[in-house]
Amino acid sequence: MSTNVPANLKYTKEHEWTLLEGDVLTVGITDFAQSALGDIVFVEVPDVGSDVMSGKTFGVVESIKSVSDLYAPVSGEVIAKNSDVEGNPEKINQDSYGSWLIKVKVKNPSELDSLLTAAQYQEFCNTSH
Amino acid sequence: MTELFRTSLFSEHQKLGAKLVPFAGWKMPVQYTSVKDEALAVRNNVGVFDVSHMGEFFIEGTDAVDFVDQLVTNDIATAPIGKAIYSPLCREDGTVVDDLIVYKLAENRIMICVNASNIEKDFSWMQSKHSGFKCSLVNRSNDFSLLAIQGPKSEEILRDIFKDLPAMEYYSVAEMGKFIFARTGYTGEDGFEVFGTHEEIKKLWNDFMERKVTPCGLAARDVLRLEVCYPLYGHELSDSVTPLDAALGWTVKLNKKSFIGKNALAETKPKYKLVKLLVEKGIPREGYKIVNSDHKPIGTVTSGTMSVVLNQGIAFAQVEIANFPKDEVFFVDIRGKFYNTTLTKKAFVTGGHK
């Protein structure tokens, strides 16, 4: 399956993309994920000030027929959420890398080591599906 | 795992890039492009579904009408030839074996279309009730492919292909050449279900494609049927509920002399009320709990989705009558949060069927 995987981002096996700027990690879902889900009609992410835990669910993305959990790539405090995408979830289908979901202040930088490079994520998509 | 059945259109679905998933023992197209686009094509224009997985039984002989009338809860005996009748099929205790459509094709000739997942169960049940009736009962599910063309432009398209198609009312049936045409469907829109041999149906599918009919998958079909509040076996209906638990009282004709389940359905009070809930924010899903204003659980969502017409969450929910709230206030528990709902009496969406 061909999919758009920008080289400047890092990824998770849960099909999320991340961008690290300073100690703030921006998180969204990948093109592969939005394509597999189909029409995205609902997004729920935590409010600013709440804490997310690495590997634990922090929200959901729903298509018409399915619910998919979102898993936090790192632990930390949510310092911003994308209300525009919550109100217009179809934007994720239109531009998944332009539609970030939350920004997390990274608590433990060592957790970043487990993120996949673009090449590793591309390989993961090719082999696991 | 046993091999999944493929309909005669399997390779056509593959060519169109459909997402194919296991469903009731079959590998079926769940979506081609977008569930939303497919559902809206049916509401506003025209779409076609491959529903060849469904079952077809034929009953022929002098007792055909009596046999079927005795089997099902709705009135088959007084319906005219050429009529299609929706009905539950019940056991003696009133529980539902299946819901189906009875087609009165001719004097002494009936076709019944049943859910794919229930073909074996229904056929054994009917066989066990067959003795003493002068009619044959044959499971011809493997002989037929079935297309449902649905949407306001259905008739125009179908008449362009079949110039001799007779005038047909909503819920009527006509046998013509190698085909059986029924003005029925599962979307609330005008439309036809066309039964035919695998070869002929494959040709017809391509005729539809040439005429730009949108191919639609089972996901769109499920959204469409829920928007117009049609029940689905395995969700609103099951082996453990009666038609009265599922708002199907209108299909139970207690004035018929006799039918299987009549006594139980006449005497027992329903346990559940099936309600239609519109959710302001959030999407209700099957299995989610319904709670009252004190947040006490009183029911369960049996089907839920996002309506493509309303852009809101919609659900059927089974609520215990013993705990039915007088204030008619219901919340749906979505991931531990209670969301407001509005109880609606009418269907969420009004289809345009004739």
**Fraction of residues in H or I helices of chain A:** 10-25%
User: Can you say what the CATH homologous superfamily of chain A is?
Assistant: RNA polymerase II/Efflux pump adaptor protein, barrel-sandwich hybrid domain
CATH architecture of the largest domain in chain B: 2-Layer Sandwich
Order of helices and strands of chain A: EEEHEEEEEHHEH
Q: What does this protein structure show overall?
A:
- The complex is a heterodimer of chains A (129) and B (354).
- Chain A has 129 residues and is α+β, with helices and mostly antiparallel strands.
- Helix content of chain A is 22%, strand content 34%.
- Chain A contains four helices and nine strands; from the N terminus they run E-E-E-H-E-E-E-E-E-H-H-E-H.
- Chain A has a six-stranded antiparallel β-sheet with strand order 1-2-3-9-8-5. In chain A, strands 4-6-7 form a three-stranded antiparallel β-sheet.
- The longest helix of chain A is centred in the C-terminal third of the chain and has 11 residues.
- The mean pLDDT of chain A is 94.
- In chain B, the strands form four sheets. Chain B has a six-stranded mixed β-sheet, with helices on both faces. In chain B, strands 14-17-16-15-18-19 form a six-stranded antiparallel β-barrel.
- The interface between A and B is medium-sized, with 11 and 16 residues.
Short description:
The complex is a heterodimer of chains A (129) and B (354). With 129 residues, chain A is α+β, with helices and mostly antiparallel strands.
Q: Notable features of this structure?
A:
heterodimer, A: 129 residues, alpha+beta, OB fold (Dihydrolipoamide Acetyltransferase, E2P), 3-stranded antiparallel β-sheet, globular, B: 354 residues, Gyrase A, domain 2, Alpha-Beta Plaits, Elongation Factor Tu (Ef-tu), domain 3, 6-stranded mixed β-sheet, 6-stranded antiparallel β-barrel
